[in-house]
Design goal:
Helices cover 71% and strands 0% of the residues. By secondary structure, it is an all-alpha fold. The protein has a domain at 106-186: Tetraspanin (Cd81 Antigen, Extracellular Domain, Chain: A). It is elongated, with a radius of gyration of 24 Å. It starts with a helix and ends in a 5-residue tail after the last helix.
Length: 230
């Protein structure tokens, strides 16, 4: 009986921590919606920009963790089984996404490169009146010390100051610009963090499996003890 109580309060504490984290991610996503959202970089994925992704992720984590916390605290079978089902669906979605990225890695790589080119062309067309596009590309240039997609020539005559290695910038001297394109820089950065990303996904899946095991253990105990829905 003491082990089950320990399991119950462990679920409460862990889910409360995740609830706080989810609320923080939700708040960060909401804040980013009012600032630059990097939507201009990948026009085809405007609905899945950083701000929206954080906003949706925060809502999911907050709702699921709240179900787990309340279900464990109140020993409510309905909430516990709902928590189990949601975790199971999330784990399946994550595994499916990982498999799709592995199987269609080449197609995804080509799609991102073409979409970056499309976003840059759109920024060239509207650069004078599109401060969001300008800020997005400037942030990428300054963060990764790169210019354009393949190189600085992608910007043609609208070469931004963020492509320069130092200020003031002499745009008539080629050596003043970052020589490497942002696409290769982003790709190298992603590949160098691939192991950490994989470890993170595995850790998340382990936490989800443990959450499902804990919730099902409590659910079975409540069912055996004859408690009804509260």
């Amino acid at each position: 009986m003491s082990c089950l109580k320990c399991l119950k309060y462990t679920m409460c504490v862990v889910n409360f921590i995740f609830f706080i984290c989810g609320a923080a991610i939700f708040g960060l996503g909401t804040y980013l919606m009012t600032t630059s959202r990097f939507a201009s970089l990948l026009p085809s994925l405007q609905a899945m920009n950083i701000a929206n992704s954080l906003f949706i992720t925060g809502i999911i984590i907050t709702c699921v963790s709240f179900l787990g916390f309340l279900g464990a605290l109140k020993e409510n079978r309905c909430l516990l089984i709902s928590f189990f089902i949601l975790l199971f669906i999330l784990m399946l979605a994550e595994l499916a996404m990982a498999c799709i990225l592995l199987v269609f890695e080449g197609e995804v790589d080509t799609f991102i490169k073409k979409d970056l080119k499309k976003g840059l062309d759109g920024s060239l067309t509207n650069r004078q009146n599109n401060s969001t596009a300008k800020d997005d590309w400037d942030t990428v240039h300054e963060t990764f010390q790169c210019c354009g997609i393949s190189n600085y020539t992608d910007w043609k005559k609208w070469l931004p100051d963020s492509c320069c290695k130092k200020v003031p910038c002499n745009k008539n001297v080629t050596a003043e610009f970052w020589s490497q394109g942002c696409y290769e820089k982003l790709k190298v950065t992603f590949e160098s963090n691939l192991l950490n990303t994989g470890i993170g996904v595995i850790v998340v899946c382990i936490i989800e499996v443990l959450g499902m095991c804990f919730s099902m253990t409590l659910f079975c105990h409540i069912s055996r003890s004859g408690l009804q829905y509260k």
